[in-house]
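User: Can you predict the 3D structure for this chain?
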Amino acid sequence: MKTILEEYPNEVRISAAELERANLAEWARLELHLLDQTAVVIPGQMTVMELLRTVEALQSLASDLLAALCAACEQCNNCEMDEPCDQMKGEVHSEVSVPGYLLEELGLEPDTKLAYEADPESGAIHIVEADYRFDLTDIPAPFLDTLRECGVCMSDLEGKLVREDVVYGAVEAENS
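Assistant: Here is the predicted structure, written as structure tokens:
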């Protein structure tokens, strides 16, 4: 069950009918779990089977969200080469890496994104603070592996991360 909550942007109201549809109306106590960009309401006491059904429902939601991400990204075509590109294999590393003590000396946080700019006139390469917040290095390795296994183009995914593209909900909100 999905309900779009647009009417009350700073508070969430769950009607009795919605609790009924989610099989939560009969419980004496409910728990609200606030996670990073997620809120989950579950029964406060559950039997083994009830707990397993809750886990299954959460796994199903996680799968649906991951499928939405995969659908929003282009499929990998090996960059039109015979072999997969480097982004489809192994670890992903930052574009520029600078020792932490140098970042500290400059007053930058250790997780500051860095980029480089080449100066053709002097032949120098300048390291600058990147103008984006996220790239592939922000995706945990297990998720990255899953997305690769799903055939997601890592270049397209990184572009969406850098641009902070909306990949979920834009069209669905209009259709719900």
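Strands lie at 30-35, 38-43, 114-119, 124-129. The mean pLDDT is 88.
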